[in-house]
Amino acid sequence: MSDRTPRSVCATALVVAALVSAVPAAHAAPAPPDGSVATLLTQLQTLYRQAEEASETYNAAEERLKVRRADEKKVAAGLARARTALAESRRAAGRLAREQYQGRSELSTYLQLLLARDPQGALDQGHLLRRAADERRVTLARLARSEQQADGLARAARKALDEQTVLAARQRTARDEVRARLKDVEGLLASLSLDQLAELARLEGEGTAKAQRELLATGALSGVRAPSEEGEQALRYAVGQLGKPYVWGAEGPGSYDCSGLTSQAWAHAGRAIPRTSQEQWAELPRVPLRSLRPGDLVVYFPKATHVAMYLGDGLVVQAPRPGARVKVSPIAANPLLGAVRPDPTAGPLSTYRPPKLPPGATGDGPDTGNDTETAPEV
Asked: Of the four, 63, 274, 352, 372, which is 20 to 30 A from 191 by CA?
């Protein structure tokens, strides 16, 4: 196997084992035209990578849709307040108009002053009338502003609704893309013979072990580090989800996708972080692998389309891919992009005991990752 051979196949142990046990040898599908297991490995990797990219696109669209819905609610509430103010202004203007009309005489203000028995009282009355007129002008000005505000909010509401419609369409497109990619993977797996499935598992296991050895040999992960208090809480939450199925777009509690697991783990620790792996990579502070501590997030692939949580000792907790379950994997099971820390200002615990892993947490077999493209950066 050359150095360019991918170090992780998406045909996981769960899928391979299920197919091996469910498909009789006599029913093995014919091999694809090229017959090369290494080529099949590359095809599987590409399909799963596309599926995960589409899944994260769906997640991002879903998050934007949530924001737009919240914005629309705020606009609707503001619009309702503006309309209430508008109605109150109209009532006030109408009241002043009625009062002025009802108190108006056929005589001019000058004649009223000349004929009044109490000229000072007439002057005071005129002052009151002028003040009432000024109040009316202020009220009418407020009415005009309320009308403008109501119109502006109505336009904003319509714009938000239009944007929400566009986002919903993108969300449906992303969802359909995920389903199409997964169907391609299922079709490809169904076309493999039992010997090919076994060879895929062997290649994946060898590739992952090689990548892990190379990474550990750099010394980037040497030493024992303790998490922060929040990091420990997030990690224990993630470990508590071991064995639960991967479902794209899922945020628990019964199933997760990769970023759904990491975001919910940190939310459980009391710290909100972005929902998707791309946002986590873009918005959270980055840390070098030599400073990695339990609870940090390890991000994979050039487009940051996969994320896991560092467990320690060169291992991560991850929701690997559709068809697999939350598990513990070697950190080098996927091509490393880098790492981020949700709580960069928090100090490490003075004493720390790693969480105890249940039996089978590492999922013995080749279900260790999704794809491989580049060597890890340390």
From this structure: 372
- Edge-first strand order for the sheet with 297-300 is 286-287, 336-340, 297-300, 306-312, 315-318, 327-330
Residues 153-194: tens digit of each pLDDT: 778 777 877 887 787 788 778 778 777 877 877 787 778 888
Span 104-134, pLDDT tens digits? 544 444 445 444 555 555 455 555 556 656 6
Number of Cβ within 10 Å of residue 253's Cβ equals 10
Cα distances from 122 to residues 72, 131, 215, in angstroms, run 54, 14, 97
**Residue whose C-alpha is closest to residue 297's, from 325, 270, 264, 323:** 264
Structure tokens at 332: 């080098």
Q: How far is CA 245 from the centre of its chain?
A: 19
Q: Residue 132: exposed, middle, or buried by beta-carbon count in 10 A (0-12, 13-18, 19+)?
A: middle
What residue has token string 């203000």?
Answer: 109
Structure tokens at 47: 């399909």
CA–CA dist 298, 337 (Å, integer): 8
pTM exceeding 0.70:
no
Contact 68, 170 (CB under 8 A): no
Kindly report the backbone phi and psi dihedral angles of residue 165, in degrees, each rounded to the nearest multiple of 5, phi listed first.
Answer: -65, -45
How many CB atoms lie under 10 A from the CB of residue 349? 15
Between CA 60 and CA 229 the distance in angstroms is 29
If you ran DSSP here, which 8-state letter would residue 312 be given? Answer: E
* 293 residue type, one letter: R
Going by C-beta distance under 8 Å and a sequence separation of 6 or more, which residues neighbour residue 316? Answer: 298, 308, 309, 310, 328, 329, 330, 331, 333
- Nearest by Cα to 209 from 13, 3, 8: 8
